[in-house]
UniProtKB/TrEMBL annotation:
Top-level taxonomic group: Bacteria
Protein's name in the database: Ornithine cyclodeaminase
Gene3D superfamilies: NAD(P)-binding Rossmann-like Domain, ornithine cyclodeaminase, domain 1
NCBIfam families linked: PRK07589.1 (NF005762)
Length: 356
């Protein structure tokens, strides 16, 4: 059975930034986030079907470049992504990403896509999915600490999936908070810019931390956080980068995506190897209860895992099939005799002779 959108010899379907933006706007971003949450839940429920490994990471003083592969035996996906916080000073994106989805039977690419927008969408959808199991019931208020590129996606995912109505913003850069305020103010949310972390977390049911600096920072200290809150910690995503006080982790029920990766990159890199965590798929599959009481403190130590990119790419592919609109890349040679690769080099020469 073919897994291709089109026949392999027609080329490789490609989703550009413009095409992704058009598709999201056509479907509606909140609809996309809800649908992505359902796709992610389906794939977390079949966790055992995926061939998993921690991502490959090449670290430098100013950032990291990562490759994130995964396969379910039918399709294979891999994302190229970087994280360079100082890029903003060069008027460059902190994150640049693209992904590939391939057919396992043939090894041919089935789709290539931008993944700056798509990563923001899948990260927000993952956060919202986890919160449906771990956040206090009837949560209405979300605090966003770190108001960069991810913040609006997080806010809209929590609104669409959990019914959040109030957003409290804080960033050390006031311009970032004002940017997020302007983008969210007409989205059916009550949005407030706060002057400190302490002010921002007051009355919050869910707290998302998503700062960019590649440092072992302490954004939330143990004494700040009462019981009963859910913390969505998604900023710590590489060695040497954390946001939470270790004492906060000690008193919480901590959930992760793929433990071998999170031990190296997440908040729990601060903790000993015997520090207990729960992989989130166990909650989906009812092997773990998740939140057990309204007074419990829960933390999602989310670093982003390749299966989430797989889910997002498969979802976008399905939307492309429905729309029938996509670009084609001339990426794979299409010579008549598959064994005669050299003939591809001869074609321009012959065309030139015919033209003469």
């Amino acid at each position: 059975m073919s897994h291709f959108i089109a026949e392999p010899k027609q080329g490789v379907p490609f989703v550009s930034v413009q095409a992704m933006a058009k598709l999201i706007n056509t479907l509606g971003i909140e609809n996309v986030l809800v649908s992505l949450t359902k796709t992610l839940k389906h794939d977390f429920a079949r966790w055992h079907e995926f061939d998993k490994s921690p991502r490959y990471a090449a670290h430098s003083p100013d950032g990291v470049i990562e490759l994130m592969p995964v396969s379910d035996g039918k399709m294979f996906s891999c994302k190229y992504v970087n994280g360079h916080p100082k890029n903003t000073f060069k008027e460059l994106q902190t994150v640049a990403a693209f992904g590939i989805l391939s057919d396992v039977d043939s090894g041919y690419p089935a789709m290539i896509s931008e993944m700056c927008l798509l990563t923001a969408l899948r990260t927000a959808a993952t956060s919202a999915l986890v919160a449906t199991y771990l956040a206090p019931k009837n949560s209405t208020t979300l605090t966003l600490i770190g108001n960069g590129a991810q913040s609006e996606f997080q806010a809209l995912a929590f609104k669409a999936v959990l019914g959040i109505t109030h957003i409290r913003l804080y960033d050390i850069d006031e311009a970032a908070s004002q940017k997020a305020f302007n983008n969210l103010n007409n989205k059916g949310l009550t949005v407030t810019i706060c002057e400190s972390v302490e002010e921002a977390i007051k009355g919050a049911h869910i707290i998302t931390t998503c700062t960019a600096d590649k440092t072992n920072a302490t954004i939330l200290t143990n004494d700040m956080i009462p019981q009963g809150v859910h913390i969505n910690a998604i900023g710590g995503d590489c060695p040497g980068k954390t946001e939470l006080d270790s004492a906060l982790l000690e008193r919480a029920n901590v959930f992760v995506e793929y433990e071998p990766q999170t031990r190296v990159e997440g908040e729990i890199q601060q903790m000993s190897r015997c520090f207990a965590v729960t992989e989130f798929h166990k909650v989906i599959n009812k092997q773990h209860l998740g939140r057990t009481s309204e007074k419990e403190l829960t933390i999602f130590d989310g670093v982003g895992f390749a299966s989430e990119d797989f889910s997002a790419l498969v979802y976008i592919r399905e939307q492309l099939i429905k729309s029938g609109e996509y670009e084609i890349l001339d990426l794979i040679t299409q010579q008549g005799d598959p064994r005669n690769l050299f003939s591809v080099l001869e074609i321009p020469h012959k065309d030139k002779e015919n033209a003469a």
